[in-house]
Amino acid sequence: MAGEVEIAELDVRYEEYRLKDPGREAKLLLSIQERGIEEPIEGVEVRGARILLNGFKRYRCARRLGLGVVPWSSLGEDEATGIIAVMRTANDRALSILEQARFIDELFRRHGLSPAALAETLSRSKAWVSMRLGLIAEMSEKVRRRVFSGAFPVYSYMYAVRPFMRMNGVARQEAEGFVEAVSGKKLSVREIGQLAQGYFKGPERLREEIRSGKLALALERMQRVTVPSDGCSEFERVLLRDLEILQKYMQRVLGKSLETRAWTQAFRAQAGLLLAGILSRIETVTQALRTLHARSGEA
Q: Is 93 within a domain?
């Protein structure tokens, strides 16, 4: 149900569940100055309280502009139902994976919905739900605050920090120390990626420089000298990653190819072409792998 709501009446307990983006918010502020709030903010009405779920950027812009009343759309009288409604329109609202994870965790822990029930309600797979529950569980409270406040880029967490936690067994406390050290320093995503490599794979001296805030010195040192803690050159590390990918997809193809199902004609035609190309090179690839294996000293 659409209407209006006074800014002062809003309960913003879910504000920390939504990511902040100062750049986008600044553009939105200019737009609202010119045209006002064109799309209503959304929430639920529970026991007389109006709880905001969607539209926090518009809410903050309205406060900055001194607007007392804003357009409002009610999603019902139940928090869980409202959250589910927001998530169902995620494609249109561009809800990020971390925001999805935060809401999924809320529905699971506070509202008691099981992963199976969540998957069915949201028309998603159980794996989709489990991945998001795992994602939010990996984050310490400090890391969560830094990422959701916009002090630490989401991309950097997902692709510079999280892989070390998953593949290299980096403890949450160690990841937290890195995020705390570089948050809010106006570093580029590339610079954060370089510092992450040094922090998680470099010598203790480099980690201490990063922890103590000597980020410019650490970046300069890394640009001057590459000190691979694993003893591999960059070419060798790339080749190792390629071998890991090859092994992964060999296992996936093997598993799927053993399924006894009726393949469609379109699949058979395309798979036939691809397999012909693969099989024409299989002996060459096998010989190259045998040679590499022998050179590695493991034969």
A: no
- Mean of per-residue pLDDT scores for the chain: 88
Tell whether 103 is covered by a domain. no
* Domain stop point among 79, 108, 131: 79
Within this chain, do residues 253 and 269 fall inside the same structural domain, yes or no?
A: no
**Which domain range does residue 9 map to?**
1-79
pLDDT band at residue 299, thresholds of 50, 70 and 90? very low
Q: Are 155 and 189 spatial neighbours (Cβ–Cβ below 8 Å)?
A: yes
Half-sphere exposure of 6 (CA within 13 A, CB side): 3
Condensed to tens digits (0 to 9), the pLDDT of residues 215-248 reads: 999 998 887 755 455 567 777 778 888 888 888 8
Please report whether residue 281 resides in a domain. yes
Which residue has better confidence, 232 or 92?
232
Q: pTM of the predicted model, to two decimals?
A: 0.69
2-6 and 69-74 beta bridge pairing: antiparallel
- Using the 3D structure, point to which of 16, 48, 79 is the last residue of a domain: 79
Question: Would you give the DSSP letter of residue 43?
Answer: E
At CB < 8 A and 24+ separation, what contacts does 195-199 make? 195/219, 195/222, 196/156, 196/160, 196/161, 196/164, 197/222, 198/222
